[in-house]
């Protein structure tokens, strides 16, 4: 199993635990968005992610995408990077394992 696949699988496990711990639904859309984010390298913005997913024929509403991005920020699976006043980009944050209860980061290297 290569590192990218391992990281994606670990992110899915952490998201599942986070959703269960917080009593949130495990919707297919949330996992599709996570999968799309963890399939690519580098930074992304929400609008580019939306367009990319639509071009691949995913049925994702913008509201679901924005809500899932907030959820992924809350469970520390992505980081927000601000450039200037109104420019936000996001990046994968799982270079380590994150405890879904306390947020402790354990480096995987």
Task: Describe the model.
The protein is built from four helices and four strands; from the N terminus they run H-H-H-H-E-E-E-E. Helix 2 (28-39) packs across helix 4 (62-74). It has one domain (3-107): Arc Repressor Mutant, subunit A, CATH 1.10.10.10. It is globular. It has helices spanning 3-21, 28-39, 46-55, 62-74; strands at 78-83, 87-92, 96-98, 105-107. By secondary structure, the protein is α+β, with helices and mostly antiparallel strands. The two termini are 16 Å apart. 50% of the residues lie in helices and 17% in strands.
Strand order of the largest sheet: 1-2
pLDDT average, as an integer?
Answer: 84
Radius of gyration using CA atoms only: 14 Å
Strand content: 15-25%
List low-pLDDT spans.
none
Number of domains: 1
Find the CATH superfamily.
Winged helix-like DNA-binding domain superfamily/Winged helix DNA-binding domain
CATH class (first level) name:
Mainly Alpha
- What's the architecture in CATH terms? Orthogonal Bundle
The CATH topology is Arc Repressor Mutant, subunit A
Helix percentage: 40-55%
Largest sheet: 2 strands, antiparallel
Series of H and E elements: HHHHEEEE
Number of strands: 4
Structural class: alpha+beta
Task: Count every helix, treating DSSP H or I runs of 4 or more residues as helices.
Answer: 4
Termini separation comes to 16 Å
Q: What does the overall shape look like?
A: globular
């Amino acid at each position: 199993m290569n590192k990218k696949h391992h990281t994606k699988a670990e992110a899915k496990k952490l998201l599942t635990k986070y959703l269960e711990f917080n009593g949130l639904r495990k919707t297919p859309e949330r996992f599709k968005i996570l999968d799309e984010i963890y399939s690519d390298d580098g930074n992304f913005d929400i609008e580019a992610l939306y367009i990319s997913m639509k071009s691949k024929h995913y049925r994702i509403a913008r509201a679901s995408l924005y809500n899932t991005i907030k959820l992924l920020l809350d469970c520390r699976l992505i980081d927000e990077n601000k450039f200037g006043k109104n420019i936000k980009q996001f990046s994968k944050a799982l270079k380590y394992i994150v405890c879904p209860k306390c947020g402790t980061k354990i480096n995987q290297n």
